Structure formats: C-alpha cells, structure tokens
From TrEMBL:
It comes from Aeromicrobium yanjiei. It holds the Pfam family HTH_34. It comes from the Bacteria. InterPro entries: WH-like_DNA-bd_sf, WH_DNA-bd_dom, WH_DNA-bd_sf. This is Helix-turn-helix domain-containing protein. SUPFAM superfamilies: Winged helix' DNA-binding domain (SSF46785).
Length: 98
C-alpha cells in the first residue's frame, strides 16, 4: 500500500486527476461544476497539486472573460498512473483473498 500517493488519494484530488487525465486541459469552472465543490475548495486542492508539480494552472481569456485552465503535468500523469496501479493492486489482492 506504500505506492498509494497520499497527495492524490484525497477523494476530490483523485477525481480531479482522473478528470484531467483524459483531456489536455480543462477550465476551472467546468472542473468545479463536475466535482460539485466551491471555488475555494477547488483552489485549495489545485494549489496542493500545483505545489507538488502534478498540475499546472494557466490563466487567460475566453470570450472576453478571465478564466483558468488546469492540466496535469507529465509528472502528474505519471503519479496518477502509479496511484491507479496501486489501487488496482489493492483491489486485486482483495479479490484473491475474498
């Protein structure tokens, strides 16, 4: 179980990484709506992942409005992949003993 990444393991961060793993980037507002969290809650999780080098946040404009895009970095993709593999190993071990 030591391969589980405690930074990614928090449910909102796990869902955030899963969302970002299948796209090049996503708008902050879209992620917030899909995770059903407030701006401040999402900002806290994004900041932790940015600090770890797992996510990059890019600010810009879309249709004249300021927006933020979020994307997994290559390190974030690698860490998320390893975390998913560790979760699968836990599930497989449970299936074998159950």
């Amino acid at each position: 179980m030591s391969d589980l990444d405690p930074l990614i393991h928090a449910p909102a961060r796990l869902r955030l990484c899963a969302m970002l793993s299948v796209v090049d980037d996503a708008q902050f507002a879209t992620v917030r709506e899909r995770l059903d969290v407030s701006d401040s809650v999402l900002s806290k999780h994004v900041s932790a992942l940015v600090d770890a080098g797992y996510v990059v946040a890019r600010k810009g404009a879309l249709d004249g409005r300021r927006t933020t895009w979020l994307a997994l970095t290559s390190a974030g993709r690698k860490a998320f992949g390893a975390h998913v593999a560790a979760l699968r190993a836990v599930i497989d071990a449970t299936d074998e003993t159950g």
